[in-house]
Amino acid sequence: MNSATPLTTSAPFCARRDALASLRERDPLVKAAAARSLYAAVLDGRAICSSAIALDEPSDLPGRPERPELVEPRKLGRRSMQSPEGRAVLLHALAHIEFNAINLALDAVWRFPGMPVAFYTDWLKVAAEEAHHFSLLIERLAEFGHAYGDFPAHDGLWDMCERTRGDVLARMALVPRTLEARGLDASPPIRARLQQAGDHASAAILDVILRDEIGHVLIGNRWFRHLCEAGALDPHITYTRLAGQYHAPRLRGPFNFEARRDAGFDEAELAALAGLEAGAPTVD
After folding, report:
1. Are 96 and 36 in contact (CB under 8 A)?
2. Which of 181, 47, 169 is nearest to 108 (CA)?
3. Distance between CA atoms of 111 and 106, rounded to whole angstroms?
């Protein structure tokens, strides 16, 4: 896909088909530009999200560059944010998360037919905002003399995407509501450490990301509950079942309760998290 080619046509084109093409794109900058252009095309009517189209899955998902090298999370070293190199490593890790988040959102758009049109529009919005975050981070990374791909990274986010490829309910439960919600908890302490190191420019990017990620998790919560209601399923019981079935990571505090409340978690869920934070035994 050529990001320089405007998304214009005499009749609206299929945004879900183009989301798949964008997902296959290997160049991160081209992918990010394509995600933002595709969402803009849907907003102004140049593209439509046809829920009836079922697309065949290609073998080259997701499209990504040869670098960074993907390793086990335990092999990723930690460096102090007091040094510029340590902050560069952090910015790179965050950029990798945002790059994966673009892929996750685009995958939700093309993969699941039969959903309401608003579902596809929501996830195109998420893809566009994740692309914006990625762009902010790599621009800041360049100010440290580095580029995306300079440091190793892990593949945990896409791994859960693979596990939930055949179940839209599991995808909504375990990607936005679990993995991405962990970012709501992690963001404030990371931001505080950047501020302490005097890196106000990087801390400001964390503010943008947290603000938008609350909205992304809210979208995940909304569609998870929509699907539970459509299937006459209790959302709390269903989440517990899916977390076990798909081997979701165990939730650990501290939790950002204010952000999670804004992102649509109900009081029962927040109380359960408070119990985990306090060290209460979990009930399977």
Report:
1. no
2. 169
3. 9
Lowest mean pLDDT among 63-72, 197-206, 208-217: 63-72
Q: What is the CA radius of gyration of the chain?
A: 19
Tens of pLDDT, residue by residue over 171-212, are 999 999 999 999 999 999 999 999 999 999 999 999 999 999
Burial label, 83 (beta-carbon count in 10 A; 0-12, 13-18, 19+): exposed
Q: Which of helix, strand or coil describes residue 39?
A: helix
Q: Say if CB 205 and CB 182 are below 8 A apart.
A: no
Q: Which residues contact 230 (CB under 8 A, 6 or more apart)?
A: none
Strand 13-14 with 47-48, pairing: parallel
Domain residue limits, the chain: 85-277
How many degrees, rounded to 5, is the angle at CA 179 between CA 191 and CA 214? 55
pTM of the model: 0.92
**How is 94-162 classified by DSSP, letter by letter?**
HHHHHHHHHHHHHHHHHH-TTS-HHHHHHHHHHHHHHHHHHHHHHHHHHHTT--TTSS-B--HHHHHHH
Instruction: Look up the CATH number of domain 85-277.
Output: 1.20.1260
